[in-house]
Amino acid sequence: MKKLFVFVCAALASLSVAAQTEDKPWSVGLYGGKVEAANDWGSHFFHPASDFFGSASLSFERYLNERFDVGVHGLWGRYGIKGGDIIPTDGVFKSNMIYADVHGKFKFVKDEEKLLHPFAFISLGVRSIKGYDRDNIKFETTAENNKAVNFVLGGGLGCDLRVTEAFAIRYFATYGYPFINADRVDNRECGKFNDQHLLHNLGFVFSFATNNDKDGDGVPNKLDQCPDTPAGVQVDEKGCPLDTDKDGVPDYLDKCPGTPAGVQVDSLGCPIDTDGDGVADYLDECEDTPAEARGMVDEKGCPLDSDGDGVADYLDQCPGTPSAAKGFVDEKGCPIDTDGDGVYDFEDVCPKEPGVKANNGCPEIKESVKKVFERALNGIEFETGSAKIKKVSNKILDDVVAIMKENPSYKLSINGHTDNVGKADKNQKLSEDRAASVKAYLENKGVESSRLTSAGFGQSQPVADNKTAKGRAKNRRVEFKVRFEK
To answer: Which residues, other chains included, contact 399 with Cβ-Cβ below 8 Å and sequence gap of 6+?
Structure first.
């Protein structure tokens, strides 16, 4: 059956198709198939060589949205096992089976124009099995022990091959597991295995609608873009009320016919200009423009700001201010220089502390500070393989503390590095720990933690050749970098 399904899909692959939509929300399906059993006699799941136990079934489903459907499925068929652990090789256990379920379906493909629409579902069903034996089966049945009715929890997978907008070929497989053991049907004495089933179904599905023109305007639901048009109103080919002047107000409500298309209008369809700036409200993005700005607005009805500094031209006394100065000008549109160092605040990284233009408005780093940091590169020593700082390093670290206290605008990045001796991951961890130890030392000496950051780079950024002892010594270092932030 699986091969047959694949063949049918391939044969119809070139057809023009369209998936079921809310325009055709109902579907009915008719199927033929095979029932496979698993019970105390054995299992014939996915056993192509086993006897064929046929079935016929019917489904009825309702479209919910592009992802989900709900429905019911009913089936009549034969349930049985040929051979097995108890039945002799040439013996057959066979029973009549009636099954019905309600199910919820999830559709994997949202695009309704696709050819194939795979899906998965879960179900809750009721199954009646009336058993009997024949051939070489050697146990007795009675009217009481040869029938079982069970609730069945199920689920499965399937696929629709859409042939037309309303017609599809469908295959699906349903696995069912009963809530209560039904073993009295197949073996009343040693029943330990719930009578499970696997239903293979192949058939046809037809989709349809119960009302093709919901609002009665003469335009089918499939084409109707305005499905709730009041009765008696004239509509266009899309099912929407006529709007001859295209002002957004339908003709049956419009008190000002002939308004140019696109003009913003009131509820009666008449154009308005709230602030009187000469720009109609449908274009006006600044509906409260002051009267003194009239004649100085753009096509959107907003006061012009030629230099983009956030101050409109009718108020701006410093036209031509760079656009980057927006937010850094006074009420007259002139750039602000808070610290008076000649560097405007919009360019000044240290706007509250006088500096130099070469350092983005921040104080120039003194040569004495640079020398301390240079000495610190290889002047901070640690215990071998450890992040513990040697006391010999305290002097230079105290010099760094003094620099930070004397320069409150400084923020310091502390970066640890190692040579390539040992494993890279351990070197990385060691560099992080050493940088963190230096940071903790500075904090303990009164430098605010908010001004300090630490990071480790292991052996990834050497400054000298690791093949020599001298080079490795240079690579084992702690770097200090001053940064300024607003």
So the answer is: 372, 376
pLDDT at 181: 55
The closest of 40, 174, 163 to 105, measured between CA atoms, is 174
| pLDDT score recorded for residue 37 | 87
Residue 6 neighbours by CB under 8 Å, 6+ apart = none
Please give the pLDDT value at position 190.
Answer: 45
Ranges of H-type helices in 327-423: 367-379, 394-406
Helices (H), 98-254: 183-186
- Contact yes or no for 380/397 (Cβ under 8 A): yes
Report CA-CA distances (Å) from 44 to 48, 81, 150, 222, 406: 8, 7, 20, 46, 86
Within 10 angstroms of residue 395's Cβ, the number of other Cβ atoms is 10
Give the Cα separation of 345 and 350 in Å (integer). 8
Q: Which residues are 482's β-sheet partners?
A: 412
Task: Give the residue ranges of the chain where pLDDT is below 50.
Answer: 1-19, 85-88, 134-145, 182, 184-191
Report angle CA 255, 261, 265 to the nearest 5 degrees: 45
Radius of gyration of the CA atoms of the chain, in A: 41
What residue has token string 């298309």? 261
Enter the DSSP assignment of 271.
Answer: B
List the beta strands (DSSP E) in 135-283: 147-162, 167-178, 196-208
CA distance 139 to 136: 9
Q: Which helix (H) or strand (E) holds 59?
A: strand 54-63
Locate 8 and state its tokens: 């049918």
- CA distances, 329 to each of 107, 339, 348, 353, 356 (Å): 58, 14, 13, 18, 20
Q: Return d(Cα 228, Cα 221) in angstroms, integer.
A: 10
- Strands (E) in 345-446, as ranges, are 411-417
Predicted pLDDT at 7: 39
For the segment 358-402, what is each residue's pLDDT rounded down to a tens digit?
788 888 888 888 888 888 888 898 998 899 999 999 999 999 999
Number of other residues whose CB lies within 10 A of the CB of residue 415: 20
Query: What is residue 192's predicted lDDT score, i.e. its pLDDT?
Result: 54
Q: Rounded distance, CA 79 to CA 34, Å?
A: 9
Taking the C-alpha atoms of residue 274 and residue 278, their distance in angstroms, rounded to an integer, is 10
Backbone angles phi, psi at 458, to 5 degrees: 55, -135
The conformation of residue 224, written as its DSSP 8-state character, comes to -
> Are 377 and 478 in contact, with CB atoms under 8 Å apart?
yes
